[in-house]
Amino acid sequence: MVIAAANPARSGRAESGSSAAAAERSGRMRSSLLPLGPPVSRDRIISSFPKWYTPDACLQLKEHFHGQVNAACQRRNTGTVGLSLSKVVVVGDLYVGKTSLIHRFCKNVFDHDYKATIGVDFEIERFEIAGIPYSLQIWDTAGQEKFKCIASAYYRGAQVIITAFDLTDVQTLEHTRQWLDDALRENEPGSCFVFLVGTKKDLLSRAACEQTEVEAVHLANSMQAEYWSVSAKTGENVNAFFSRVAALAFEQAVLQSLERRSSSQPQVGDGDLIRMEGSPSDTQETKRPSSLGCC
Ligand SMILES: Nc1nc2c(ncn2[C@@H]2O[C@H](COP(=O)(O)OP(=O)(O)OP(=O)(O)O)[C@@H](O)[C@H]2O)c(=O)[nH]1
Ligand SMILES: [Mg+2]
Hints:
single chain; alpha/beta; Rossmann fold; 8-stranded mixed beta sheet; 10 helices; binds magnesium ion
């Protein structure tokens, strides 16, 4: 992997030097090669499309991979997707639980003590989706204002933006729009999937959680984001959430790869007979994913 060549760790920290910068560069290179490591753990194997948290604020209501994606995966014909990783950036106010959420998912740990993130950290998490190896590079950014300019340097090239807020602190929900705008500014319009995540679900009663969720779902819709409530402490919904992130990002990456391939294929020109690669249905049906951030 380019990551491995520049930085053998599967995690890193920006303030300590060049490792995060190297990872950031390699994350931008969609063709960066990943190593053939040990098999991924069972809970990272995704064979059917993971479900949304609530149909009231979800990016896609369908329950299956796109037909072209299924077909490409069956033929092991997903281009560079099986060899590359996608960048996920997690943003939000300080103390909302961004680091805890990532550590619960990547390391299955939870720490009660607060240690502010300084600058940015990242973790790489490997999946196998529809039989194809796939990795997420998950960037944990600092919520403290004084580190914002370091963190924002790493927003670029994100395929997924996760805006996190604390379900017990409604002010942090109000700030998510600003966090999202800052992250979107560094990326191509329409190029990112957006998630709005309420953290610390374990600290609320079911009724209180549902009350906050009404407001959060409303905001998620206005942001064209998918909504999830999670708890890093208990682990509730954490694996399901990241599986959903991985599946959506993977599907989009495969569709984009198919589209790139189809647009680079030669067309039938004046008087020249040129044989098209793949089946006729492959080339005809290949099109841009209908829309990002929309059911
Ligand atoms: N009860 C409970 N506490 C949580 C949960 N997630 C995080 N916390 C606590 O909230 C505090 C802040 O968590 P962090 O993950 O460090 O917050 P952060 O968003 O990364 O903060 P910055 O790095 O400063 O931006 C810590 O004391 C965590 O133990 C959760 O799901 N439940
Ligand atoms: Mg943190």
